[in-house]
Amino acid sequence: MSKKMLIVDDEELIRWSLKKQLISHGHDVETFESGEKAIDYFKSGEKADLIIIDFKLPGMTGLETTAEIKKIYDDIVVIMITAYGTVETAVTAMKQRYIVDYILKPINFDELLIAVERAFEITELRARYKTLIDEKTTPFAFENIICNSQKMKSVIEMVKLVSRSDATTITILGESGTGKDLVARAIHYNSQRRENPFMDINCAALPDNLLESELFGHEKGAFTDAKATKKGLFELADRGTIFLDEIGDMKQELQAKLLTALERKSFRRIGGVKDISVDVRIIAATNRELKELVEHKQFREDLFYRLNVINIEMPSLRERKEDIIPLIEHFISEFNRAFKKKVKDFSPEAKDSILSHEWPGNVRELKNVIERCVILAKGDTITVDELPTEFNPAKRLSRKRSEFSIPPGGISIEELERELVVQAINMANGNQTVAAELLKLTRDSFRRRLVKFGLI
């Protein structure tokens, strides 16, 4: 494929011979005898795929010229040529990311052609990499986050400021399902760290010993099952972001090690003796009141203050009802594509029922409801009869009457409540957050019932 190239050299014979050689290989070539003229070429709005430029030029040097061109046309790549083949010259040139190769005079044309081919391979790889980064970042671009409500707009403004900052510890607070993970990713993918890893982990989902290994890694033989050395998230996310979801459930012993890593910006693997330095941004999230946990000695006070630098509070869906209809439209479009359906909207009665719902599960619950409705929809408009039972008063009353009735001998409400709590914790496989959602309770309310009935 033909490429546009610029040759910048003060020796006419070199310009002529290089141009002839490159044209013979199908490329479009322009030549200039000075850096200033090459800069004027780009200032006029012209572009090129590659510059082959002499290091030593009359007036501006090759490095100075390419630095100025880079300001005008950011995508340029450069091959530097020179008769002054010192190590210092080569190192100076190759430190510039856009200078991809370096060859010496007298020029060997075969070597030059190899360098040109390699330069275009690098250009193609960079283009593919940029495409991959764009694909990752686009869903979390600020303009793609639905926020018609003033409360959510305020959150996004805060997120914009934080993402541009160098803040290394951020805490996101809010009920389960409010989109804390979405905001964490938006912070990362709109920051200078976007090209580096985003690693996330749920602190409530893993046992303490496994969580420590996931975060900090371990050395071979550190414990019985450590058959090989393993890098943890802190190493893997160097120069990137770690999202610690449900940090309020992390045990205090591990909290101490996390605090040390945050303070020193270094850590040791389990069983390790060497400090490993890292540069990571920590975004912690919780649906629990950390201050309350500190008061009850369940969360370290020093870690609380270390994390409590920048707080972002996510509003519940009940507090941002202006966003419900736009969210419905977004989810309908998403699930139409996923399930090859053609649902257009909800009926007015169905919308009224949705808007009057309390949404204890917040946006996550709304998304799940829309997914169910799109899958089961019989036509292009979802009616109130196609909504889940809790959105239809008549169906809800009918189900309650058919599913439960007071036995002839009566029943203790306390006994019934305890049975529901036990069933929920069993269904959730011991996960208190999930169990609380099953009973439409906050996690703290559910935990108080566990204590009340002696279940913990």
List keywords for this structure.
about 450 residues, alpha/beta, Rossmann fold, Helicase, Ruva Protein, domain 3, 4 domains, five-stranded parallel beta sheet, 19 helices, elongated
Question: Which helices and strands occur, and which strands form pairs?
Answer:
Elements: E1 4-8, H1 12-24, E2 28-32, H2 35-43, E3 50-54, H3 62-72, E4 78-82, H4 87-94, E5 99-104, H5 109-137, H6 150-164, E6 169-173, H7 180-189, E7 198-202, H8 208-216, H9 233-236, E8 241-245, H10 252-264, E9 266-267, E10 276-277, E11 281-286, H11 290-295, H12 301-307, E12 311-313, H13 324-339, E13 345-346, H14 348-356, H15 362-376, E14 381-382, H16 393-403, H17 413-427, H18 432-438, H19 443-452
Put the structure in a nutshell.
With 456 residues, this protein is α/β, with parallel strands linked by helices. 48% of the residues lie in helices and 13% in strands. Strands 2-1-3-4-5 form a five-stranded parallel beta sheet, sandwiched between helices. Strands 7-8-11-6-12 form a five-stranded parallel beta sheet. Strands 9-10 form a two-stranded antiparallel ribbon.
Structure, explained:
With 456 residues, this protein is an alpha/beta fold. The chain has helices spanning 12-24, 35-43, 62-72, 87-94, 109-137, 150-164, 180-189, 208-216, 233-236, 252-264, 290-295, 301-307, 324-339, 348-356, 362-376, 393-403, 413-427, 432-438, 443-452; strands spanning 4-8, 28-32, 50-54, 78-82, 99-104, 169-173, 198-202, 241-245, 266-267, 276-277, 281-286, 311-313, 345-346, 381-382. 48% of the residues lie in helices and 13% in strands. The chain has a five-stranded parallel beta sheet with strand order 2-1-3-4-5, sandwiched between helices. A five-stranded parallel beta sheet has the order 7-8-11-6-12. Strand 4, helix 4 (87-94) and strand 5 form a beta-alpha-beta unit. Helix 2 packs parallel to helix 3 and helix 6 (150-164) runs parallel beside helix 7 (180-189).
